Amino acid sequence: MTRYEAIIGLEVHVQLATNSKMFCGCKSAASSRTPVPESSAIQDVGPNTRTCPVCSGMPGALPVVNRKAVEYGVMAGLALNCQITRLTRWDRKNYHYPDLPKGYQISQHDLPLCHHGWLTVEADGRQKPIRIRRAHLEEDTGKSHHRGDHSLIDLNRSGVPLLEIVTEPDIRSAEEAYAYLTKLRTILRYLGVSTAEMEKGAMRCEPNVSIRPDGATEFGTRTEIKNLNSLRAVRAAIAYEVKRQTAVIESGGQVQCVTMGWDEHRNATAVQRTKEEVQDYRYFAEPDLPPLLVSREWVEEMRGRLPELPDAKRDRFIIQHQLSAYDAGVLVADMTVADFFEAAVCSYSGESKTISNWVSGELFRLMKESGLPMDAVQISPTELAELATLVDQGKINYSTAKDVLVEMFSHGGSATEIVRLGGLSQISDQGALQSAVTQVLAENPEQVRQYMAGKETIIQWLMGQVMHATRGKANPRVVIDVLREQLGSIE
Ligand code: ADP
Ligand code: ZN
Ligand code: MG
């Protein structure tokens, strides 16, 4: 039976988080960096309140390039190992759609701002480079809202700066595509150039998918998938499309070059647009804008301002904090988490691994349960370090510490205070635990008999009873010692 290999290339549009739009001074709808509550973000600004003659496409209005958008584009390009084009220009991409008031989009067709880059992703336990063909600047369109028999148009998004990042067809599975997008999102957030939230449209991905028999050198006919608004949807849609194309070919058919739409409810792709309708964009140089010169000095100055990127941070964490590649990878996936971890390590004298465990274990669990991102957590790095120190000093045991963390997470406060107010100090005093152990043994003669008969594991159960009797405060190591001692003296 013939086996097939999937070939995938991704086109990603990223909204740049500049204050103003790409070619005018209007406030950019994509500018809010910190997550704002869903309702206020949408409702505070009415439709068409962030528009001017330029972004609403009035004849005669002239565009002016947003320097910050160019800077963000270059920074992203540098972080993606791209070459930066010194002298580039703007092109008009012509098409007609109600959300495009000028009848064309200003883009960069022939000379993209960035080209020939790469980004590595982990695939089958190895680092695999995915080549980036180009990354260019352009402007976003407005948004149509369809209401029954009529449509409404909102131009607030019209003219928001976009960076379109296109890969070579180097991706070989839905998982690799997922890994690429996750990594890309992390890098963009490190740079602060975009919120990169797919759910909010700040990052949009259109995968191109084809298959070919294993060993073939030619690519097969590809389809392009649209309407994907989460990383998970991208992964599911690619996997679906690979299966669909395989079935088409195996049944003797041919894959058609079409645009597919992803149907979130049916979990399936469906043809959206056929090749006959593919447009001729009649590209030509934008006459209203001069060529764009990005000097070497400016590029080097920006290179110097790049933050430590996720891969470099991960490698440093492995060496400096003696973490496994896995643990380091988990921490650097979010820069605010990585910063929190390092700040906590600074006020902690034990091993960094302990802090890493607290962060990626209990803290992540609480964040996930509550839906709070790292920067909304009210525990400070110093406070977490203090909690870990209390455990090291034997002042509280680990299970009490977990409860204390829950309290810190939901109501704030220092670990020391919470332990003091709640009387949660660990009981390590042998004398104090003797009576609790004696009582547990007296109340459970059957289990004691089993232990004496050789069932040694029952000691764990007895320990559980002692922990319960001491409201979880007993030092487990001391409890075990006292239990052994008392059981040993039973005839
Ligand atoms: P356009 O979609 O504008 O025609 P390109 O032809 O440059 O643009 O390709 C867009 C994307 O499709 C790129 O990411 C590229 O890697 C990918 N691609 C090109 N050919 C194939 C193929 N046969 N199978 C899968 N992806 C492909
Ligand atoms: Zn405007
Ligand atoms: Mg395309």
Q: What portion of residues is helical?
A: 40-55%
Number of helices: 16
Small molecules bound:
adenosine-5'-diphosphate, zinc ion, magnesium ion
Number of strands: 16
Query: In this structure, how is the largest beta sheet organized?
Result: 9 strands, mixed
Find the structural class using helix and strand composition: alpha+beta
> What number of domains?
3
- Overall 3D shape: elongated
Strand order in the largest sheet? 2-6-7-10-1-11-12-13-14
Instruction: Tell me the distance between the termini.
Output: 72 Å
Spatial extent as radius of gyration: 30 Å
Mean pLDDT: 93
Q: Classify the beta-strand content into a percent band.
A: 15-25%
Low-confidence stretches: 33-43
List the topology elements:
Blueprint: E1 4-15, H1 38-44, H2 67-79, E2 83-84, E3 87-88, E4 91-94, E5 104-107, E6 114-123, E7 126-139, E8 143-147, E9 150-154, E10 161-167, H3 174-191, E11 203-213, E12 223-226, H4 231-250, E13 259-263, E14 268-273, E15 284-285, E16 292-293, H5 296-305, H6 310-320, H7 325-332, H8 335-346, H9 352-370, H10 381-392, H11 398-411, H12 415-422, H13 430-443, H14 445-452, H15 458-469, H16 476-488
Parallel strand pairs: 12-13
Antiparallel strand pairs: 1-10, 1-11, 2-6, 3-16, 4-5, 4-15, 6-7, 7-10, 8-9, 11-12, 13-14
Helix pairs in contact: 3-4, 6-7, 7-9, 8-9, 8-10, 10-11, 13-15, 13-16, 15-16
Plain-language structure description:
Mean pLDDT is 93; it is low at 33-43. The radius of gyration is 30 Å and the shape is elongated. Strands 2-6-7-10-1-11-12-13-14 form a nine-stranded mixed beta sheet. Strands 5-4-15 form a three-stranded antiparallel beta sheet, with no helix packed on it. α8 crosses α9 (352-370), α10 (381-392) packs antiparallel against α11 (398-411) and α13 (430-443) packs across α16. It is 41% helix and 19% strand. The relative contact order is 0.10. The chain has 491 residues and is α+β, with helices and mostly antiparallel strands. The chain has helices at 38-44, 67-79, 174-191, 231-250, 296-305, 310-320, 325-332, 335-346, 352-370, 381-392, 398-411, 415-422, 430-443, 445-452, 458-469, 476-488; strands at residues 4-15, 83-84, 87-88, 91-94, 104-107, 114-123, 126-139, 143-147, 150-154, 161-167, 203-213, 223-226, 259-263, 268-273, 284-285, 292-293. It has three domains: 12-196 and 278-302, no CATH class; 308-422, no CATH class; 430-488, Arc Repressor Mutant, subunit A (Orthogonal Bundle), CATH 1.10.10.410. Bound molecules: adenosine-5'-diphosphate, zinc ion and magnesium ion.
